[in-house]
Please model this.
Amino acid sequence: MSNPSNHHDKDKRDLNKFGYAQELLRSMGGFSNFAISFSIISILTGAVSLYGHGLTYGGAGMMGFGWPIVALFVMFVAAVMAELASAIPTAGALYHWAAILKNKRWGWYTAWINLIGQIGIVAGIDYSVALFADPLIASVFGYESSNTTVLICFTIILLTHGILNHIGIRIVSRLNDFSAWYHIAVVAVLVLSLAFFTKGNLNPVNYLFKVGETFSDKPYMFAFLIGLLQAQWTFTGYDASAHTIEETINPRVRAPWGIFTSVAYSFVIGFVMLAFVTLSIKDAGAAAGSSNAFIYVISQALGGTFGSVILWLVTAAMWFCGLASITSFSRMMYAFSRDKGMPMSNQWAQISKKYRTPAKAIWLAIILSFLLAFIDYIIKMVNPDATYTTIAFLTAVSVVGLYVAYGIPIYLKLRAKAEGRFQDKHLGPWNLGKYSSFISVVALLWIIFICIVMVIPPNQMAGYAVAGMLILLIIMDLAYYKNHFPGPQAALNTSMEEIVRREKELEKTSSV
Model:
């Protein structure tokens, strides 16, 4: 049995060779690292909040075919990211990988694009919670749910996540551990309830694979592609295992498994859940036309009171998802600020002396996520006839931002490998061996494909938002990057060869 103190010493040395001191509290085990990504993926958030989107565009077949197709290709992406996390175990994750594999400019752009995606995913998750929670609360207190009351609910939810993340990683870690089991338990309750208590009979299994039916004005194949947003947004945020890698014990093994297994388990458990929800549909057209298709389907299948209990359980799971997403976002921002990548970096890189958490980065994450949803709220107030939905806008922004950020280091790894700058000796203990390049190419092709699909009409607003943010990023490049960004310590005058050399020196020193 390994000595925990030995692991801590080795983990500290692994971090030191990349130029960083151990500042964050390293207390997360393997399950906790898995749990944070599993909680952010949250099949009870993405698959549920966008259930109506998937059903409207792809019909029942979106659940039978769309979910497995997306999940399969995302597993390729997750596998390559896991390999990189094992090789370069720092909280900066994506942008540290890019900076080391190429240069600091690539790292800087990767970081900012990742930040765009992180803003979108936090806003999208907590807005999803509000979309479910506000009507349920309204039914209890007798007010009418509206865009304004949803925004107020969204703000309160963000504040609860900020406070808990500020207080400490131990509390959040325990809640994330609980969240993983809670997700599984709620899915089990939901599936068993639908299997045994659905009013009337379930649809035959082949209904799950019914293709050709769309409730949109688009041709079916085109509509099916648009509907993939449901599954694709669900499978985001699993880089959280890498962002919390400096708080994980034995991170070069546990964090990669956290990334990969969080996707794999979500794939299987999510498919079972979607299958039973879809097989319980009484009227697909009415569900697609309702304000919330998932609530409609559950209410029709299980009745008012029982259905409401299930929906409250699902809403609580979404809340846990948002809690974990703030943890991941703030760690990424902390790591970037530690490298002076943001204006006022000295503020966002500060660690709370009492709680040992990046407190100011946590609250900045809260503010930025609120602003994205608030700007959309103002646009809707000015233009009430807008056809896009807020949740589709927020989720598409997060998918494009995150997956472009995922794709950059994957592309750079392929280039570095072709040029001989990244070799087998640079890999960590978790690696893909001889299949690494093939899996990387498949992952990259899927990222290119899905990012195009996510910004075509009716999601063009997401494309405009991402384009606007990229223009601001170019302006910041000219105004800030050249004069203020020295690059991550992990990449300053450092190549993979230099890191391997440092590792050998540290091993010799520690053995003396």
Observations:
- The chain has a mean pLDDT of 87.
- The radius of gyration is 22 Å.
- The chain has 22 helices and no strands.
